[in-house]
Amino acid sequence: MHEITLCQRALELIEQQAKAHNAKRVTGVWLKVGAFSCVETSALTFCFELVCRDTLAEGCQLYIEEQQAECWCEHCQQYVTLLSSKVRLCPQCQNVGLRIVADDGLQIQRLEIDQE
User: Fold this and answer.
1) How far apart are CA 48 and CA 58, in angstroms?
2) Strands of 35-88, DSSP E
3) Residues 6 or more apart from 20 whose CB is under 8 A from it?
4) Does 38 count as an annotated binding residue?
5) 90 labelled as ligand-binding?
6) What pTM did the predictor assign?
7) Which phi and psi angles does 12 have, rounded to 5°?
């Protein structure tokens, strides 16, 4: 389960930013999960809560946005959205020559902090 490692690294970055802005606590975190990241959102939520215990982010609200599986089809010459990140065929022409446009990582989009 790589979700725990992702959460630990995210927490390090969250704490750095919180401390840099003199936060007493982090109240909200917005994460964007790449369509090809192989991250299970329920596991991510569980692990995030676990790693945040006894930190500035304990009890914060977690918001997760899942990115769509967007690709560029060389044959159709257009962007297509896949219904599943496991399917690698163009839904328009069934071509296999898709170039992945969607991210495969995890991004911290926004933090909400309490400075009082």
Assistant:
1) 9
2) 61-66, 69-73, 78-82
3) none
4) no
5) yes
6) 0.78
7) -60, -45
Q: What is the mean pLDDT of the chain?
A: 89
How many residues make up the chain in this entry?
Answer: 116
Backbone angles phi, psi at 67, to 5 degrees: -75, 145
Instruction: List the strands of the sheet with 61-66, edge to edge.
Output: 61-66, 25-33, 106-114
Question: Has 2 been labeled as part of a binding site?
Answer: yes
Please tell me whether residue 64 adopts helix, strand or coil conformation.
strand
Q: Pull the structure tokens for residue 74.
A: 């060389």
Question: What's the rounded Cα separation, in Å, for the pair 41 and 48?
Answer: 10
Are 97 and 88 within 8 A, CB to CB?
Answer: no
SS3 59: coil
31-82: pLDDT as tens digits: 999 887 888 899 999 999 999 999 999 999 999 998 888 889 988 899 988 7
Is 71 annotated as contributing to ligand binding?
Answer: no
